[in-house]
Amino acid sequence: IFNKYFKKYPPEISEFTFTNLFAWQEYYQFLFLEWNEHLIIFSKNFLKTWRTPKSNLENRLYFWPPIGEKPENIIISLFEIIKNLEIHRVPESIINKLKEKKKYNDLNLEIEEDRDNWDYIYKKENLINLSGNRYRSKRRYLERFLNKYDYEFHLISEEWLEKCKELQNKWCMINECQKHKDLEEEYKAIDRMIENYAELNYRGGILLVEDIPVGYTLGEILNNNTSVIHIEKAHTHYEGSYQAINKMFIENCCKEVDFINREQDLGIPGLRRAKQSYYPDHMISKSIIFKKPK
User: Fold this and answer.
1) Contact call for residues 277 and 122 (beta carbons, < 8 A)
2) Whole-number Å distance between alpha carbons of 226 and 214
């Protein structure tokens, strides 16, 4: 059912792949339904557990944008029917159409930009070639890796999954995942992806030095012209490993697209600096929609 809708209505935001939804199911506690020829994804419990609701109303529902031909109409209908809800990760393309609706003002809706969840979109060729002065430091790191190490790159298949787990466990030990709730939840999501590799439609690459995993990436096609990178981890002891796995994955796994979606920065300063340092071509803005408190 998910792939049917994603194929008919190709997503622009990174959240909308079945792989991503499946990986984060335990965190968001997603439910879904088909209604008026749209796919609706929501959670009854997420706001109580993980986020502060926009109001103090109890039993507040957390929705993502409806998937279908007229999501703006479904959003209006949801607010007419349901008293306590918020709709998150709504891209600007839907926001603009929603604002054209008379009922948008009648319902007293408010839109709040969610900058921490904006997607970073890069030109593929920029990430592969790292051309120009602005990428000079990235090229230096990459060249050091290529010149210093006897490396191997492999497309991920069943035989390489244990090596991915090995690096993920090492990465978590170095970054003390057990002390950070967000890293613990990411670890669970990655584990679900790896354990269900055979059933999920994603691609991956792994980088090894003397049979030691030093980088891996998991991603997939998002729409006709964009791939999305869900997970990218590297062992920083191996200088340039992040630049190397980034280049090799995109070269080998993203041949049919022109753009790479590297997801959001979640408001984490270091992650924001890292994503900005690759100079995105543009961002996909997202917002939260909720009713203004009376």
Assistant:
1) no
2) 26
- DSSP string covering 27-72, please? HH-EEEEEETTEEEEEESSHHHHTS--SS--SS-EEE---BSS-HH
**CATH topology classification for 119-263:** Aminopeptidase (3.40.630)
Confidence tier at 265 by pLDDT (50, 70, 90)? very high
Q: Distance between CA 87 and CA 109 in Å, rounded? A: 11
Note the pTM of the prediction, 2 decimals.
0.94
- Locate 106 and state its tokens: 């009648």
Q: What is the mean pLDDT of the chain?
A: 95
**Annotated domain spans of the chain:** 2-118+286-291, 119-263
Fold of 2-118+286-291: Aminopeptidase (3.40.630)
The pLDDT confidence band at residue 292, using thresholds 50, 70 and 90, is confident
Q: Hey, do 2-118+286-291 and 119-263 end up sharing a CATH topology, with the first three levels equal?
A: yes
